[in-house]
Amino acid sequence: MGETAEHAVVIGASIGGLCAARVLSDFYARVTLCERDELPENPVNRAAVPQGRHVHMLMARGAQEFETHFPGLLQDMVANGVPILQNRPDCIHFGAAGHVLGTAHRLQSEFTAYVPSRPHLEWQLRKRVLALDNVDIIEAAVSEPRFETTRERVTGVQLESGAVLPADLVVDATGRGTRLPVWLQKWGYERPREDVVFVGISYASQRVRVPDGLLTEKVVVAGASRAQPRGIGMLFYEDGIWNITTFGVGKVPPPQTFAQMCGLADEILPAHVASALRQGTPVDEVAHHKFPASRWRRYDKLDRLPRGILPFGDAVVSFNPTFGQGMSMTSLQAGHLRRALTSPGADVAMQCVRATAKTTFPVWTMNAIGDLIMHRATGPTPWWYKPVGALFDQFLGAAESDPVLAEWFLRRFSLLDSLYMVPPPRLVGRAIRQNMRLWLAERRAAKRPVTFETMREPG
Ligand SMILES: Cc1cc2nc3c(=O)[nH]c(=O)nc-3n(C[C@H](O)[C@H](O)[C@H](O)COP(=O)(O)OP(=O)(O)OC[C@H]3O[C@@H](n4cnc5c(N)ncnc54)[C@H](O)[C@@H]3O)c2cc1C
């Protein structure tokens, strides 16, 4: 390890900060997590994490990664009522870019996913971190890290109370609102370049109690498409309540009331799901959230970073939330941090941000293609995004009626197997053949009534 291993400070005790603290606890004698928000004893929403009120999908890969850092987590979640999805055909309805996949057939290989609410997952991680002997979580806001010009390194943090915590490593896990770029500039370093996709997403969410026996599904997703700029995510959580999140992309407003949410469900969800929702009883108020842009701060492109500071979690990259990847991608960063800390003589921060860039690139690029080509987003659009987007639309069209293609997509979407959404030639050929079959069947069907009508036409 390239850093002295006495004391590490992590700013922000949300999913990112908790993951970082867990890894650091194996390498530093002491770890202190500083959180400006009040930390509840129970799994409830926190004021400083407003996104927690909206549906959070945990990808199958994310669950696996969290389990490696927090052994026993998954079993404990299930024991606490967190629904588990196995590859049963009726537990998920999944619509992406106007195509519905994977519901009609049993998937062939094992596929297990978990459906914890965002507050539940954070509470599970927090109680595990609190149980570590060498980690303290303190409720204190950090005003900024301390930087020593002569040594060109960060030496600790200054709290808003005025107290100073000396540290050998400071991790910035303060989320999308991070001020690290500003601090870097102040210390005489370059700010990182930012890759931005202006997605213009607005969320409106409502918790709903649906009468028992109406739905076998635990996850219902209908993403936005070219034709429909609004989408819905419905997750059945451990408290037995459905969280219904509706959203609009490209600055299109989402439904504002429960009645309007039911109206959207009638348009884009299967009839039995929309009907179950109408029979539901809303619990508490509709929550709103705006997410103007996906943002990737390119620390990996900088020539130098001061020693002793590491950006982490959403502070590095904040993905379009409607794809449900942020927490899972953060869990991958924890693996990068562990590997950097075990590399002899490594510059931990640089190694970690570069490894993060490698795993971010394929996911970020595929999201950008979907958003810029199909979801009315704006931002730099390389010429090849359009043909790739069109090809992918064809692939998803074929996957609607081909379980092998659907399974391939759902596994990749869940970040399993590989982060690259590039089908091998064998599957491209299969998609082309399937689309040909569909096209021929459509033509035959279209011809029949025309011939009949033509025969009846006078003259
Ligand atoms: C609307 C929405 C929906 C989402 N849906 C999904 C989803 O379906 N699936 C998924 O995987 N991800 C989703 N995400 C992303 C997910 O929420 C984040 O990736 C995840 O929370 C990790 O973020 P983080 O810990 O890096 O930052 P955050 O969760 O933003 O936490 C930052 C923490 O730092 C603290 N902090 C900030 N400044 C200071 C300071 N100066 N001193 C002390 N503490 C400070 C804050 O109080 C907060 O606790 C969604 C995000 C949004 C916005």
UniProtKB/TrEMBL annotation:
Q: In terms of domain of life, where is this protein from?
A: Bacteria
InterPro entries documented for this protein: FAD/NAD-bd_sf (IPR036188), Flavin_halogenase (IPR006905)
Q: Which GO terms describe its molecular function?
A: monooxygenase activity
Q: Which SUPFAM superfamilies match?
A: FAD/NAD(P)-binding domain (SSF51905)
Q: Tell me the Pfam families matching this sequence.
A: Trp_halogenase
| PANTHER family registered for this protein in UniProt | THIAMINE THIAZOLE SYNTHASE (PTHR43422:SF3)
Listed name of the protein: Oxidoreductase
Task: Supply the source organism for this entry.
Answer: Mycolicibacterium pulveris
